[in-house]
Design brief:
The complex is a heterodimer of chains A (about 325) and B (about 110).
Chain A lengths: L6 E2 L5 E2 L1 H16 L2 H4 L13 H11 L3 E6 L2 E7 H9 L18 E2 L4 H10 L4 E5 L5 E6 H24 L4 H4 L7 E7 L9 H12 L4 H21 L4 E8 L2 E8 L7 H4 L9 H5 L7 H8 L2 E7 L3 E9 L17
Parallel strand pairs in A: 5-6
Antiparallel strand pairs in A: 1-2, 3-4, 6-7, 8-9, 9-10, 10-12, 11-12
Helix pairs in contact in A: 1-5, 8-9, 9-12
Chain B lengths: L2 H7 L3 E2 L13 E4 L3 H7 L4 E5 L5 H8 L4 E4 L7 H10 L3 E3 L4 H10 L4
Parallel strand pairs in B: 2-3, 3-4, 4-5
Antiparallel strand pairs in B: 1-5
The chains are: A alpha+beta (about 325), B alpha/beta (about 110).
Chain lengths: ~325, ~110
């Protein structure tokens, strides 16, 4: 990472772009998240006339360090473990809660952002804050631990959504409004590059799956392209280009090259006929079934070739209504 | 019959990273050394028996979503082929026997 993108952190640690992004995301989240989303509901409460030793038991059993005090449903105080300690020092565990509770109640609203609770925690020295609704009724309690957990959960959700966004493009045609949307993929294929044979077809197949194509359709396209790709690798002088145009209603695949061209196109389409060299046949190619396989996988195949000039192979799959990529309703599908 | 049992009973050697083979149930088999025939004839989930060991078997197996490739007569794929197979999640197995023998045994075991 270049120095330009680095900042010196307050503690001398270098803050990278990535850190900065994460920090600002946490800040953003503390504004986005509502207190009601991170607070603890089902709060344990006590009444003012309850003896302190009963509270001791409630705190111990529930492993909590404080409880709101309610009287006829209204929040009248907060009792914390510090109050209990004071009470134990004086040996007054038989005293009622009202004798030790704090009446100075600092509460936050359920509909406030988490940032409001963070501010309150930093100005008031409180371990927990009661959360009230618009009518001032107690609906929950919030601690710093709740905030940390809430923010971490939200970051985790963010991460999952980001992953989904990154790995799925199935909403592409839905997100874009145009009279005719198409996605074009291009691959340059080198001659005799057997090591990478099948790379383009596997990338195309994966792209179709990410766009939400059904697996059967993606496989068909993959097979048709594989055969065409291997033809470019095996037979062409300078390699060629694969161009795939994906539209909501069809997939148009085309390979073009600049030679040597096919002497007899009709013969090339005959099952079992091949011009492959022995060397290529030893690798399992040259069965003379490539174009036949392609024909089986697509709705339309056109082979145009001029010896000395080059070859163009066009393959088209018209998607059945249930196979079509989803579009926005405004987009008109052009047949 | 799962792939783990097949590997065990036919004494096959996996060349690629192990997978939960016991949860892979081959749907049938196909035997040919001509890639285009395999593309046309093999079905997803099939085992493919071939003596070919060069890199293009990986592309064919991946495109056709085959359960595994059984390379017969101890033909040995290059490390580059094995690496590519691992990348694409293709399982490569090697047998000492001929394609004919392996196919016969698989047929006997009920992989049809």
């Amino acid at each position: 990472m270049s120095n330009l993108h680095e900042l010196q952190g307050r503690r001398g640690r270098i803050i990278t772009d990535k850190d900065a992004r994460e920090i600002s995301r946490v800040e953003e989240l503390s504004y986005d998240l509502k207190i009601s989303e991170v607070m603890t509901r089902n709060v344990k409460t006590v009444s003012p006339d309850m003896p302190m030793n009963a509270v001791l038991e409630i705190l111990r059993v529930n492993r909590i360090s404080g409880v709101p005090v309610l009287e006829h449903g209204d929040l009248v105080g907060i009792l914390s473990i510090e109050d209990l300690v004071r009470c134990m020092e004086k040996n007054e565990l038989h005293f009622p809660v009202s004798a030790y509770m704090s009446r100075n109640i600092v509460s936050v609203n359920a509909y406030d952002s988490v940032v409001k609770a963070i501010e309150t925690f930093s100005t008031q020295r409180k371990g927990r804050l009661p959360v009230v609704d618009e009518a001032g009724k107690l609906v929950g309690i919030i601690t710093k631990g709740d905030i940390t957990r809430g923010v971490l959960n939200a970051l985790q959700r963010d991460y999952h959504e980001e992953e989904l966004r990154r790995y799925r493009a199935s909403h592409l045609f839905e997100d874009i409004t145009s009279d005719r949307t198409s996605l074009i993929l291009r691959y340059n294929i080198k001659p005799r590059d057997y090591l990478n044979g099948g790379q383009a077809s596997s990338h195309i197949k994966r792209a179709l799956l990410r766009l939400g194509a059904n697996p059967q359709l993606a496989r068909q396209c993959g097979i048709a392209i594989y055969e065409a790709e291997m033809n470019l690798i095996i037979h062409t002088t300078h390699g060629g280009i694969i161009r795939v145009q994906i539209e909501p209603h069809r997939i148009l695949m085309q390979t073009t090259d600049d030679g040597p061209g096919i002497e007899d196109v009709q013969k090339a389409l005959t099952p079992g006929w091949s011009t492959a060299s022995q060397e290529v046949r030893d690798m399992g190619f040259g069965a003379g079934m490539g174009l036949v396989n392609i024909q089986r996988c697509v709705d339309r195949m056109e082979l145009e070739s001029a010896p000395g000039k080059g070859t163009r192979l066009t393959m088209e799959i018209i998607l059945r209504p249930e196979e079509r990529f989803k579009e926005t309703e405004e987009n008109g599908t052009v047949a | 019959m799962n792939l783990q049992e097949i590997i065990h009973r036919l004494d096959l050697t996996p060349l690629t990273h192990p997978k939960p083979f016991e949860s892979i149930h081959p749907t049938g088999g196909y035997a040919s050394d001509l890639l285009s025939c395999v593309i046309a004839g093999a079905k997803p989930g099939n085992l493919w028996l071939t003596i070919q060991a060069h890199v293009n078997i990986v592309a064919v197996a991946s495109l056709n979503e085959l359960a595994a490739v059984i390379v017969t007569e101890n033909a040995s794929p290059d490390p580059a082929v094995i690496e590519k197979a691992n990348e694409q999640g293709v399982t490569l197995l090697v047998s000492r026997e001929t394609t004919y023998q392996v196919a016969g045994k698989l047929w006997e075991m009920g992989i049809r």
